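Cross-check.
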Amino acid sequence: LSRDDDAGAARVARDNLQRLRDLRLQHDNNLGRSIVTASAGVYAGIPKSGESADLVVGHADQALYAAKNG
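Predicted model, tokenized:
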């Protein structure tokens, strides 16, 4: 999403999660839920010179963890 700011990225995530909910995909082996669920976390930033992609992925992973844990 190189052309979106953090609000745009969050909107894309919310829209995609809603599309998934609307599909109501069956998941019989999910712990207590009968449909597929998902979480999304968003990180927006521009890496500084010399920063690795792993750092950006790490920030995104932290955002996903925060989304999953509420």
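The mean pLDDT is 85. The chain is about 50% helix and 0% strand. Passed to J.P. for a second look.
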